[in-house]
């Protein structure tokens, strides 16, 4: 599965951005999905997940500010979104979309980087 993120950029504190993740030629119908983020020298951490039942879980650091949605297009392909509001400088990271067939490794525990096997190339978010 090839994942392609887009939507990153630079924004002032308090602003908003929406990230998108697409998998050309794939529908995600039997995959769990997640957004992760990472800054240089730190572990990649999960921001939020969506499991096969559509249940969405967020990291405490982003609850109430970030929203994950999974939309279905006319061709059955889906786009995973990460809507980020009230952004803070500490949200400045590289953001990655991830996918795993079925449930992620360690499910239902909140995942680590090792829980997902498919990754996008990442998109940079900078908050000043």
Tell me what you see in this structure:
By secondary structure, the protein is an all-beta fold. Helix content is 0%, strand content 46%. It has strands at residues 4-6, 9-11, 17-22, 31-38, 45-50, 56-58, 66-72, 78-84, 93-101, 118-119, 123-127.
Secondary structure class reads mainly beta
Distance, first to last CA = 34 Å
Helix content: under 10%
Number of helices: 0
Number of strands: 11
Report on the biggest sheet: 7 strands, mixed
- Alpha-carbon Rg, integer: 14 Å
Low-confidence stretches: none
Question: Helix-strand pattern, N to C?
Answer: EEEEEEEEEEE
Strand coverage percent: over 45%
Shape: globular
What is the average of the pLDDT values?
93
How would you describe this structure in keywords?
128 residues, mainly beta, 7-stranded mixed sheet, 11 strands, globular
Which helices and strands occur, and which strands form pairs?
Elements: E1 4-6, E2 9-11, E3 17-22, E4 31-38, E5 45-50, E6 56-58, E7 66-72, E8 78-84, E9 93-101, E10 118-119, E11 123-127
Parallel strand pairs: 2-11
Antiparallel strand pairs: 1-3, 3-8, 4-5, 4-9, 5-6, 7-8, 9-10, 9-11
What's a concise summary of this model?
The chain is 0% helix and 46% strand. The protein is mainly β and 128 residues long.
């Amino acid at each position: 599965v090839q994942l392609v993120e887009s939507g990153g950029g630079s924004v002032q504190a308090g602003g908003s951005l929406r990230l998108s993740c697409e998998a050309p030629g794939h529908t995600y119908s039997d995959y769990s999905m997640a957004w992760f983020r990472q800054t240089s020298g730190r572990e990649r951490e999960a921001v939020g997940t969506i499991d096969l039942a559509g249940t969405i879980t967020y990291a405490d650091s982003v609850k109430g500010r970030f929203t994950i949605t999974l939309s279905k297009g006319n061709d059955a392909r889906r786009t995973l979104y990460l809507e980020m509001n009230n952004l803070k400088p500490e949200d400045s990271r590289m953001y990655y979309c991830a996918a795993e067939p079925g449930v992620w490794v360690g499910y239902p525990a909140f995942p680590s980087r090792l829980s997902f096997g498919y990754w996008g190339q990442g998109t940079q978010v900078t908050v000043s």
